[in-house]
Design a protein that fits this description.
heterodimer, A: 138 residues, Rossmann fold, 5-stranded parallel β-sheet, 17% strand, B: 550 residues, alpha/beta, TIM Barrel, globular
């Protein structure tokens, strides 16, 4: 039987804007994924540790504090260091358009901007996150 | 007096609708409240103009908290500002004052909001980005350099560490040589809504409320013109609540602070006149207008019923309004000027005491100077050109508005009753009730946007193919480096023994359950940092963690 795709919705940083994270977590759960929500105020270490412990296939990061250029690279670096680079990282929030190419270059698979439709995000996850691949590789 | 609506429906409406049906089966507000085709006197059965409306400045204050309202004094135009270092924000403050702004409102960066120093590992990437970096009294002195605190009122959006920032502010005013009896302003300091929606908390709810009551008690004695708490629905609404949830949770939070302060032994009239409120101005014009009117009436009635104050000021719901950040769009951002104008108009017609209008670029970044100037000008045009301030509460007597005001009061009261039955807001927070109710409302709205039941121009309809991006404000990485360097120099140069002793004195007061404000002001004067002081709070009271309900 195929394992259900597991996704961690993570809120790194010090801000408290969790409306988007909760909407996405709920939409993905309603679409049949197993969703773990980290809660607010997580450090990059906490998010990576949770991702590994919970054996997730992907991490969706919600960042509205402007600290995306620190937090995304840090989380990707830690995943590499812990040999968990098979976990796909995507995200969304208040991220200026001209900063998206740099984030994609370091390995963020997709960035969803304000106004994104949850159905598009669900579709993207269905297409791009493969639960079998990530379990086998660890 | 009564109009025969049935006859009209049968003879005029029905044949008309048969030929030309209405555009939708149901018309609803942004909060998903159904709105009728037309309202008549029948919708106001049982309504008493005397008991439910009264006149401005008189109980139950539905029509306004003061007898002359904006004819006497316009609302305070108060743009929320803060970014980079204290020096950067000080320059923005002076720019706003030069442009005719009449009060200041401070946005702190997230490390300050959460009680961390700028060089804490948790602060990395966040220094000066979403607000101004304040680590100690030194930064606070710089922030208000050249701004006389006896003359300009200052609002500070600070909650978890509100008592600490108030202490920094008092110390700054003392160093400026101000008479504290003349210093006016506001600390947001509404910790209950942090657990409900905004999430900038440090310690658990019970000690969190204890600190709020400490500041209320301290201000009543030492800072008579200060508003110690700005009871805020703004963030509850931004988190996705309906208008009625915003109304009910906010008023209830206010009643809770009064309850706890009275339990401390304070007389209600010694502090309640200085409690103020902060509401959101969302997109649905009439629903918002009715909300402000209902807020004043509920506060007056519930205050009288529960605490029997003798001073009418204890029952006046004075409030600040900010237009709804969550209603703005990243797409075609110039349209945000129009949204903000409509929202600001509802706040003005609703009788606000002060107002922040969002800048068009705020879904993208902190506002540029140009964008914030347009936002401020929006208020000035409403105040001086539109003619809407000539008379007080112009909507009174409208069948629709009065019936909507009544309905919202009734629904908010049902939630307030439910919260009473749960044993108060702390108990409700512990069982997750307000958070779940808000998350559910937010989910319903999102679905309506995605199915185009609700149209958002530029997002799900009238989409532009090519958009020219706006010039936005970017915070350079040097801000973090400079702030950290200055903070570390401060730690080297100050009197360490003095700091240690002041922090120990704070610990002693906390252990003895005394008022933390006097030792906090003493800590401020030694240049103890926010991280050092908040560490004492964390150690003595424990830390609150997000339950992560979705």
């Amino acid at each position: 039987m195929q394992k259900k795709t597991r996704i961690l919705i993570g809120k790194p940083g010090l801000d408290g804007h969790d409306r988007g994270a909760k909407i996405i977590a709920r939409a993905l759960r309603d679409a049949g994924f197993e969703v773990i929500y980290s809660g607010l105020h997580q450090t990059p270490e906490m998010i990576v540790n949770t991702a590994i412990q919970e054996d997730v296939d992907a991490i969706g990061l919600s960042i509205l504090s402007g600290a995306h250029n620190y937090l995304f690279p840090e989380i990707i670096k830690l995943l590499k260091a812990k040999k968990a680079s098979d976990i796909t990282v995507f995200g969304g929030g208040i991220i200026p358009e001209d900063e998206i190419p740099m984030l994609k270059k370091i390995g963020v698979k997709a960035i969803f901007a304000p106004g994104a439709d949850t159905r598009d995000i669900v579709e993207w996850v269905k297409k791009n996150i493969n639960s079998d691949a990530s379990t086998e590789s660890r | 007096m009564t109009i025969n609506k049935q006859k009209w429906e049968k003879e005029i409406l029905d044949p008309f609708i048969k030929k030309t049906p209405e555009r939708q089966n149901e018309f609803t507000t942004v909060s998903n409240r159904p709105i009728n085709r037309v309202y008549t006197a029948d919708d106001l059965a049982g309504f008493s103009a005397e008991a439910d409306l009264g006149l401005p400045g008189d109980f139950p204050f539905t029509r306004g908290v003061y007898p002359t309202m904006h004819r006497g004094r316009l609302w305070t135009m108060r743009q929320f500002a803060g970014f980079g270092t204290a020096r950067d924000t000080n320059a923005r403050f002076k720019y706003l004052l030069k442009n005719g702004q009449t009060g200041l409102s401070t946005a702190f960066h997230f490390p300050t909001l959460m009680g961390y120093d700028s060089d804490d590992p948790r602060s990395r990437g966040e220094v000066g980005v979403c607000g101004v970096a304040i680590d100690s009294l030194k930064d606070m002195e710089q922030l208000f350099d050249g701004i006389p605190l006896e003359d300009v009122t200052v609002s500070m959006t600070i909650n978890g560490p509100a008592a600490i920032l108030l202490a920094y502010f008092v110390a700054t005013a003392e160093k400026q040589g101000c008479n504290l009896n003349k210093v006016g302003g506001t600390t947001q300091n509404d910790i209950l809504k942090e657990y409900i929606a905004q999430n900038s908390y440090i310690i658990p709810p019970e000690p969190g409320i204890k600190l709020v009551v400490d500041t209320i008690e301290y201000c009543a004695k030492h800072l008579p013109k200060w508003n110690p708490v700005s009871i805020s629905g703004y963030h509850i609404r931004e988190a996705g609540s309906t208008a009625v949830q915003e109304l009910a949770f906010t008023i209830y939070d206010g009643l809770e602070y009064v309850k706890y302060s009275v339990a401390r032994g304070l007389s209600v009239d010694s502090f309640a006149p200085r409690l103020s409120f902060f509401f959101n101005a969302h997109q649905d014009f009439f629903e918002e207008l009715a909300k402000y009117r209902a807020a004043r009436r509920i506060w007056a009635r519930e205050m009288r019923r529960r605490f029997n104050p003798q001073n009418p000021n204890s029952m006046r719901c004075r409030f600040h309004v900010q237009t709804a950040g969550c209603s703005l769009t990243a797409q075609q951002p110039e349209n945000n000027i129009i949204r903000t104008t409509l929202q600001a108009l509802s706040a003005v017609l609703g009788g606000c005491q002060s107002l922040h209008t969002n800048s068009m670029d705020e879904t993208l970044a902190l506002p540029s100077e140009k964008a914030v100037q347009i936002a401020l000008r929006t208020q000035q045009v409403i105040a001086h050109e539109a003619g809407v301030v000539n008379t007080i509460d112009p909507v009174a007597g409208s069948y629709f508005l009065e019936s909507l005001t009544n309905k919202m009061e009734e629904e908010a009261m049902a939630i307030i009753k439910k919260l009473d039955d749960m044993g108060g807001m702390v108990a409700a927070i512990k069982n997750g009730y307000p958070m779940m109710a808000i998350a559910e409302a937010s989910r319903v709205y999102q679905r309506q946007v995605e199915t185009k039941e609700k149209i958002i121009i530029g997002v799900n309809d009238y989409i532009a193919k090519d958009e020219t991006p706006l010039e936005i404000l970017k915070i350079s990485h040097e801000v973090e480096q400079n702030q950290v360097r200055d903070l570390q120099r401060l730690r080297r140069e100050r009197d360490q023994t003095g700091v240690r002793e002041a922090l120990d004195a704070l610990t002693t007061v906390i252990k003895g359950q005394g008022n933390v404000m006097p030792p906090l002001v003493a800590c401020a004067h030694t240049y103890a940092t926010i991280g050092e002081i908040a560490a004492v709070l964390r150690k003595e009271y424990g830390e609150y963690r997000d339950p992560g309900i979705f």
